[in-house]
Amino acid sequence: MTVDTSVAPGHVPGPLSRPMSPVGVGGGAALPVRLQGVVKSFGTLTVLRGIDLTIPAGQFLAIVGRSGCGKSTLLRLLAGLDTADAGTITIGDAARRAESPVRLMFQEPRLLPWARIRRNVEVGLSGRGAGPQAGALAQEALARVGLAERAGEWPSVLSGGQKQRVALARALVSSPGLLALDEPLGALDALTRLEMQELIERVWTAQGFTAVLVTHDVGEAVALADRIVVLDGGAVAADVTVDIPRPRQRGDAWAAAIEGDVLRRLLGGASQTTNGLVSPSGALPVATGPQA
Amino acid sequence: MSRLRGLLPWVVPLLVLIIWQAGSELGLIRATVLPAPSDVALAGWRLLLSGELLRNVGVSAWRAGLGFTIGGAIGFALGLLNGLSDLSQRLLDTSLQMVRNVPHLAMIPLVILWFGIGEEAKLFLVALGVFFPVYVNTLHGVRSVDPHLIEMAGAYGMSSRALIRRVILPGALPSVFVGVRYGLGITWLTLIVAETISATSGIGYMAMNAREFLMVDVVVFAILIYALLGKVADSVTRLLERRCLAWNPAYRNA
Ligand SMILES: Nc1ncnc2c1ncn2[C@@H]1O[C@H](COP(=O)(O)OP(=O)(O)OP(=O)(O)O)[C@@H](O)[C@H]1O
Ligand SMILES: [Mg+2]
Considering chain A, what is the average pLDDT of its residues? Predict the structure, then answer.
């Protein structure tokens, strides 16, 4: 695997967007990702038919698409839970991956019910030889998600949102270089979702990993991501840059315009770009900066 | 109020004892059929003083403990092995399930032919009886560990040893406990039958011996001792269960 520091063609950093530093605050180094012609089939069903995607280190990418279009499949490939039938996936280089690994946050928290909260977070350090430090690191990660005082409890007493925060702490404890999130907020109520979104944005800003978020909620994608990729028919159907400065205001006209555009592309109405290139000076109001 | 609640389960047994005692005193229950509770208690006291009681209870408990440990350990090990390895399960499970259909008590004549009436015969029967429930429930427990958790552990780079220790074993434990409690029941049942048919010591032998001398009170006392031992074993298991499965809300305050 090669070191890949190139910047995606579709990505144009805005004047106020966070500088793309490859080195995170949390000690891990953000990993760049490059997918070339990635194909994945299950039996006769070809789910991904040639995905080309370059994600610069430290970018927050959101993936949206119809149910069953292969978003989870793509994330599982990134996390190494499955292997592609064709094409190549390059995620940083081996040395950097060893230091700051790829982590996947599932739709369900997947906590071990028989392990206390802190022990669950320590699972994130499996095979990383953290030794006696593990407990302290886990405690620190729990503090980052605001659950430090619950460390000694069983998962069964936590609420759904709290369980997801523990799962987030478990993913963060090893200072990931790439964090893939597979609709982690899908099962949460609206208010808890907003809180979790803020939390995810905060830890991403602090730790500076590359983030790939799969979501059904275009509003969520617009609120969090630097860039939104629409997956359709097993390929990248659109690639939209979200150049709204952070911290972002919910429901401003700028965000609404981008959200409307992504939704149109999702529904297949707008003209589809081949390799997901949407010029910032094109139909999207991304070039001139926010109006709010 | 809460103390009264704690006594509630004992109301019915106490009532039965009182009626039984009254029935005996009034001559409604003949002593040759069922001696009065006080007579049974006296018989127990005599056995305790002579040292016979402790010796026989000790022998029976030792047989139960050792037989259970042997059968349970083999059942657990094979259950774990077959739960983890498809190859092993395909090789062994069908054979084991076929043997399971033979009631282990039906083996008594054969076992007496093999081992005589020595200790091995009893241990063998108990171990054989305990093996299957522990095996079947361990296998089921390992197989029914949430595959999502196993996938999660793999994604986090857990070694296979850590996976077994931290995910599979704790996940299978509730089911293993079901097997253990079932196995304990079989242990006492097997022991009663085996000691009654062929033994020179133990509670069952004590009862059979008393029967020859028409000491009905001793016979009844022996039956009660079996019940008590079974109850003690079950309570200990419940206690262990509650401690080991404290994470599970269903066991936390049962
Ligand atoms: N292990 C598998 N075996 C067979 N088919 C699979 C497997 N995993 C996924 N698929 C199929 O691949 C397709 C894409 O699945 P995937 O889970 O990636 O969709 P998704 O985009 O994540 O959908 P959703 O938004 O509903 O989560 C579906 O048609 C699914 O049935
Ligand atoms: Mg999915």
Answer: 82
Residue A35 Cα to ligand 2 middle (Å): 19
How far away is chain B from the Cα of A114, in angstroms, using its nearest Cα? 5
8-state DSSP, B10: G
Q: For residue A9, what pLDDT band results from cuts at 50, 70 and 90? A: very low
CA distance B212 to B196: 12
Q: Is the omega angle on the peptide bond into residue A247 within 30 degrees of 0, that is, cis? A: yes
Domains of chain A by residue range: 25-100+176-292, 113-174
A115/B contact by beta carbon, under 8 A: yes
Report how far apart, in Å, the C-alpha atoms of B121 and of each of A2, B112, B186 are: 68, 6, 16
Percent share of chain A, pLDDT over 90: 59
**CATH number of the structural domain spanning residue B154:** 1.10.3720.10
Q: What is the C-alpha to C-alpha distance for residues A156 and A111, in angstroms, rounded to an integer? A: 9
ipTM of the complex: 0.83
Residue B190 included in any domain: yes
What is the rounded distance in angstroms from the CA atom of residue A238 to the CA atom of residue A277? 7
Q: Does residue B189 fall inside a structural domain?
A: yes
Question: What φ, ψ does residue A188 adopt, rounded to 5°?
Answer: -95, 155
- Under-50 pLDDT residues of chain B: 254
Position A28 pLDDT exceeds 70: no
Note the Cα B199 to chain centre separation in Å. 19
| Confidence band of A21 (pLDDT split at 50, 70, 90) | very low
Residue B78 counted as domain residue:
yes
A67 lines ligand 1 (CB under 6 A): yes
A153 contact residues in B (CB cutoff 8 A):
none
Could you give the number of structural domains in chain B?
1
**pLDDT over threshold 70, residue A273:** no
Within-domain flag for B26? no
Domain, as residue range, for B166 = 73-244
Residue B118: predicted pLDDT: 83
Q: What is the CATH number of domain A25-100+176-292?
A: 3.40.50.300
Among A110, A125, A174, A179, most B C-beta atoms within 10 A, so best to mutate, is A110
**Does the structure show a pLDDT above 60 at A271?**
no
Expressed in angstroms and rounded, the spacing between residue B168 Cα and the centre of ligand 2 is 26
